[in-house]
Write a structure and sequence with these properties.
Layout: E1 32-46, E2 73-88, E3 94-107, E4 129-140, E5 143-151, E6 173-183, E7 186-196, E8 200-202, E9 209-211, E10 218-227, H1 231-239, E11 244-259, E12 280-296, E13 300-313, E14 328-341, E15 348-357, H2 409-414, E16 420-433, E17 437-450, E18 462-475, E19 479-483, E20 486-490, E21 506-516
Antiparallel strand pairs: 1-2, 1-21, 2-3, 3-4, 4-5, 5-6, 6-7, 7-10, 8-9, 10-11, 11-12, 12-13, 13-14, 14-15, 15-16, 16-17, 17-18, 18-19, 18-20, 19-21, 20-21
Length: 517
């Protein structure tokens, strides 16, 4: 699923079906291009557990300090060096693209050599360099063809997000063959993804992998159309006071016939050698539809995205030889709206964002349930939303974790927006603007509520109100510094009803320094 540049991201970095080949078609003075950033972040997190205590299922809302759990103060600092490399043919018809993340979100001080108190250096683990993208693009008379592992983005990034935003921690990438054709002022696109494959054995030379269960592979096909403008073109039209309407839609279908669950399930003992008995029928089918639109003028921007997901698993059992009589099903829907009022490049802007993610009546939010984890009980924060054969439906929609709504509740405690609604008023004021940069002051408030009260720890809908101010200094020589505190005031939906505890406020103090190149 796919596909268009987020409004605040440069078109050369965000990847999706709507803008593959955006850098092709012109002669190049530079064959090689390089860009990216170095990011450092430090945080103080206070009372993310909300003085809640363990849930009835023994869960904690957030990890506690080992030495003194009552202190409720945690620290965190990490870094990332991102490098985007592109090699262009001189005529501009072909490009090769690679994204490398070095020390990707590595916790500072996490790999001391030897005894911590005596260490003099840091060790580098096997994932010190992560290759996030590696693909080629070619411009033909019939459109652009892209092949390889490439970014996957659509609209606001609510469902598919390529992870290009300043505070993004993850990203979506697809092993894909894509075709995009500009025609009739639109872009029409088609993509085939190998979403998953395996299990594998090595060939005789030990250099290539052989997939020994071809029907266990997961395949995806996506078709899309959209009409959009580049960020530079949109900025020029807004400065000139022109109204611009952009839109797009896609449909995606995914399927898997067979499965070998022993290759990905956690086992208490070593798994036996793979054999025919471990292959089982899965009969998985899923479909997704998503629509996106954006309307901009000199004084405003309104942007919205809505999605509906459907899935059916003919055989939900994960144990070879054991069948379940009823299929597992899923019906999920989500919606996000963003808007700003204020002149482009002006000193101020205001707006109110809205969001909705469908819920499920099972206990817990179901944001990131553990595989084969214990069934949740009322009052738990997390847990599987389906417990066959009694409950075979998973209906909670999950926003992408890099679609940022707040800084504490959805981002850290729950993990993402799911089974919830929110209202987010926000404002920005440019306090200073000079030849070397500008200083912005931002303020946002987020009121959130559960869709299904049975999902919330407190068994009630109101979750909390969060205040998210920030001060951001951006220079014209690629340096950005920010101070981003937050205060979460929890409401009855986050109380510990079983223990009789009322949830208490949580606080965040974060500083971020970023060097762009």
């Amino acid at each position: 699923m796919a596909l268009a540049p987020a409004p605040e991201v440069e078109e050369t970095t965000t990847q999706g079906l709507g803008n593959y080949g955006a850098t092709l078609g012109q002669r190049r003075a530079k064959v090689w291009e390089i860009g990216g950033y170095a990011r450092m972040r430090g945080e103080l997190q206070h009372n993310y557990d909300l003085d809640h205590g363990p849930t009835p299922g023994g869960q904690l809302l957030y990890p506690l300090p080992l030495g003194n759990p009552r202190r409720q103060l945690l620290t965190r600092a990490d870094m990332r060096l991102r490098t985007d490399l592109a090699a262009h043919a001189p005529r501009g018809w072909i490009s090769m693209n690679v994204r490398l993340d070095v020390l990707d979100n590595f916790a500072l001080g996490s790999s001391p050599a030897g005894i911590p108190a005596a260490t003099t250096t840091q060790l580098s683990g096997p994932e010190v360099i992560r290759v996030k993208r590696a693909f080629a693009q070619v411009l033909t008379p019939l459109g652009v063809i892209a092949v390889g592992r490439m970014g996957n983005h659509w609209g606001l990034g609510m469902l598919a997000n390529s992870g290009d935003c300043t505070g993004c921690d993850s990203s979506d990438a697809s092993d894909r063959i894509a075709w995009a054709l500009p025609a009739f002022k639109h872009v029409f696109a088609l993509a085939y993804d190998i979403s998953a494959s395996g299990p594998f054995v090595s060939d005789a030379a030990g250099t290539r992998a052989i997939g020994i269960a071809p029907r266990a592979a997961v395949h995806s096909v996506t078709g899309a159309f959209l009409r959009t403008r580049s960020p530079n073109s949109l900025a020029r039209r807004r400065s000139g006071g022109r109204l611009t309407f952009e839109y797009g839609a896609y449909g995606s279908y995914r399927w898997q016939n067979l499965d070998v669950p022993s290759t990905y399930l956690p086992l208490a003992s070593a798994a036996p050698e793979l054999d025919r008995g471990q292959v089982m029928i899965r009969g998985y089918q899923a479909a997704a539809t998503d629509g996106w639109l954006r309307l901009t003028g000199k004084w405003f921007r309104v942007e919205a995205e809505g999605a509906f997901l459907w899935a059916n698993v003919e055989q939900p059992s994960l144990i070879p030889g054991v069948s379940l009589p009823q299929p597992a099903t899923s019906r999920q829907g989500g919606f996000a709206l963003e808007n700003d009022v204020g002149e482009v490049h002006g000193r101020w802007s205001v707006g109110v964002d809205l969001g909705f993610a469908s819920g499920d009546r099972a206990p817990g939010f179901g944001a990131y349930p553990a595989i084969n984890g214990a069934a949740p009980v009322p009052g738990d924060l997390e847990g599987a939303q389906a417990t066959p054969p009694y409950d075979n439906a998973v209906n909670n929609f999950r926003f992408h974790s890099d679609y940022r709504v707040d800084r504490i509740l959805f981002r850290e405690i729950i993990g993402t927006v799911t089974d919830a609604t929110y209202v987010r008023p926000h404002a920005r004021y440019t306090a200073w603007r000079g030849a070397t940069g500008q200083l912005d002051i931002n303020l946002a408030g987020v009121f959130s509520a559960a869709v299904e009260p049975t999902s919330a720890p407190g068994q009630e809908r109101p979750l909390g109100f969060e205040i998210d101010p920030s001060i951001v200094f951006r220079t014209n020589f690629a340096l950005e510094a920010a101070f981003e505190p937050a205060l979460l005031i929890p409401l009855s939906g986050l109380d510990n009803v079983a223990a009789g505890y009322a949830a208490k406020p949580a606080q965040l103090y974060r500083a971020r320094l970023q060097f762009n190149f």
